[in-house]
Amino acid sequence: MTKHLFFDDQRLYIRQGLTREYGVPETVGTFVDPHLTSPYGWSATASDGKVHLLYNGMMPDGDGRIVHGFGAAISDDGISFQTRDTAAESGFDNPLIPNQILPPSPTFSEIAAMVKDPFAPPAERYKILYADVLGPTPEWRIQDDVYVSPDLIRWHKLPNSCWNPYGTEPITGAFYNPVSEKFTILSRPGWGQRRVGVTETINWHDFSPLELSMQCDSLDEPLAEIYGMPAMEYDGWFVGFPLIYHGFPQEMRTKYSSGKMHAQLAYSLNGHYWQRSLRTPFINSDTVGDGSWAMTSPSSMLRRADGSVLIYVNACRLEHGTAPEKMLGNAAVKILRLRKDGFIRLAAHGKEEGIIALRDSYLENGSLSINILADHATCAIYKFGTCGTETWLSHDDCIPFSGDATNWTPQWRNGSVEALKGKLVNIEVRLRDGAIYSIAYDGLPLMNHEADIINNYGRIPLLRKGF
């Protein structure tokens, strides 16, 4: 299945009367651990069918110190969570909290990311990328190791598994990459470098050399930095959430003791090289609540059975670098829901008709699905090479659509898309007062010369993944 999302116009011939906009995620839940203040959380669906939330948090250790604790919660729907009594199963005789999963860290070591590995032995099904602050030492060194678990409760360090030899902090993205057929890790290139680097592994012991993938540029607010970029593979695309750290004073030794954070959107075709989308906040203080959250940073995403996406957002009311004791009680995990394919949309406003037409496509099967919200919409399929002559299925013959559907299947009075199997086509949608989120079909998206190879020689060209 090929899915066209509209982050850019690379695969379009026509885009008229349409404005590119972010989709709008809806806040559907808030989780606050009663035992610790949880500014960072990661979700996973386990074999028991439940959604598990693991998180870092700050808490007093009983001796007057603030430490990093690590807790667990569980949910049936991924939205409403309850803390999970894991301490005994995790092997702690004297746990600080009943839902503890790792030893507390007085040096503020952190979970950088969590990922499910379906290819691993059951005992190593889940991975945590852990940033272990070993200092104070002459270098205040951070050791980046992998922890593994069969059940999200019992964790142990995987030997010889340093995922960043330069020692870096969270926040990190980790996902399986079907283009490279490896796990991709997006992390800072090194400690204190607020840019996005990329490394990959197939076995969690050997990692490719870190490469620079993305950093802030001249279109950003002065002095802004990318704090990290959680990301996910999504139906042939890769979607990232670059966390933009900004809003601190311009003075010497700045960029620590103040500043705010919001998330933008980025996208990639191969998980290595990324483009940023609209340079405005996709998730910020207003998105997650009442506007009082200075720091909003997505950490993980979860696909649901209906295709919608749950986004777990770490929200803090205080600015960056606030003293740990002041953080207590001022952070939460916010759960946002995004409609299927709802990251980006092309919107038609008012009475002006919007038109979108795809470049050439080869239909391998007779299926077509459109994610759309519109007062009125029709679809046409043009014969390849006829310069727009409607020789297959026309707008006039299409039964108009009105409403909201994530999988509208156009119907025509005197024909069907099923009859076009094995054809070269161009697909066009016209809509009024609404937005289109995606077009999906069983077939091959082609550029001009690739379509000519099929049309002139009857041969399917060799298409490369990640282009």
Write the layout of secondary structure elements.
Elements: E1 2-5, E2 12-16, E3 19-22, E4 26-31, E5 37-45, E6 51-60, E7 66-75, E8 82-83, H1 87-90, E9 110-116, E10 126-133, E11 142-149, E12 156-157, E13 173-177, E14 182-187, E15 196-201, E16 211-214, E17 225-226, E18 231-234, E19 237-240, E20 243-246, E21 260-263, E22 266-268, E23 274-276, H2 285-288, E24 295-303, E25 309-316, H3 324-327, E26 331-338, E27 344-358, E28 361-383, E29 401-408, E30 424-445, H4 448-457
Antiparallel strand pairs: 1-30, 2-27, 3-27, 4-26, 5-6, 6-7, 7-8, 9-10, 10-11, 11-12, 13-14, 14-15, 15-16, 17-20, 18-19, 19-22, 20-21, 22-23, 24-25, 25-26, 27-30, 28-29, 28-30
Shape: elongated
Low-confidence runs:
none
Strand proportion:
over 45%
From the alpha-carbon coordinates, what is the Rg to the nearest angstrom? Answer: 24 Å
Number of domains: 2
What CATH first level of the largest domain would be assigned?
Answer: Mainly Beta
CATH topology of the largest domain: Tachylectin-2, Chain A
Mean of residue pLDDT values: 94
Query: With helices defined by DSSP (H or I, 4 residues minimum), what is the helix count?
Result: 4
Q: Write the CATH homologous superfamily of the largest domain.
A: Glycosyl hydrolase domain, family 43
Straight-line distance between termini: 16 Å
Pairing-aware structural class of the strands and helices?
A: mainly beta
Helical percentage: under 10%
Q: Which second-level CATH architecture of the largest domain applies? A: 5 Propeller
- Care to count the β-strands? 30
Q: Main sheet, how many strands, which sense, barrel? A: 7 strands, antiparallel
